[in-house]
Amino acid sequence: MSSLDEADVIRQLASPEGRRKVFPMIVDQYGEPLYWKIRSIILTHDDADDVLQNTFLKAWKNLPTFEGRSRLSTWLYRIAINEALDFLRRQKATTLASADADLSIANQLMADDYFDGDRSQALLQQAIAMLPDVQRTVFTLRYYDEMKYSEMSELLGTSEGSLKASYHVAVQKVTDYLKRNE
């Protein structure tokens, strides 16, 4: 969406009729990029699809409170990332964390019809999945999206310095994991 289009969308969000009219356009515009952002955190298609649906439900519910202080895309990405992290927290709470469970991530990806990578890419995803939630998010935003730290700071509400530190530690952990599992 161009900035003029976004300004028009924000104006339309002020009324219930406008929200009903413009929300399908928001879903159409941001559905795929949000899916891939969620997928980089969640890893599996079905779970990422569920989190995407939750993201749009939460966005719809909170559209009347969107004040336009940030870009619409930033607001949607923040919701998506928070939903993805909440999903991971719930998943960890219901699943016993074991080395065997962590090692199965690469095997799950290789069996996923929507995963088109090779074994080394699956191991990279496994290494990323083993990172703590914040480090995983920072790593994926920086490594895959090449997002600037200033943008991440706005999106995640964290200082640039702590984001840089998180990324550095995440890179080291991923590198060490890949070296151990070559």
Question: Quick one: overall form?
Answer: globular
* Helical stretch tally: 9
| Whole-number mean pLDDT | 82
Strand tally is 0
Structural class: mainly alpha
Helices and strands, in N-to-C order? HHHHHHHHH
Short summary:
The chain is mainly α. The chain is 78% helix and 0% strand.
Q: Could you describe the 3D structure shown?
A:
It is a single chain. The protein is mainly α and 182 residues long. The protein has nine helices and no strands. Helix 3 packs across helix 4. It is globular, with a radius of gyration of 18 Å. The model is unreliable at 96-103 (pLDDT under 50).
Labels describing this entry:
9 helices, 182 residues, mainly alpha
Summarize the helices and strands and which ones pair or pack.
Layout (H helix, E strand, L loop, with lengths): L2 H10 L3 H27 L2 H18 L9 H23 L4 H13 L7 H11 L3 H11 L5 H8 L3 H21 L2
Helix pairs in contact: 2-3, 2-4, 3-4, 5-6, 6-9, 7-9
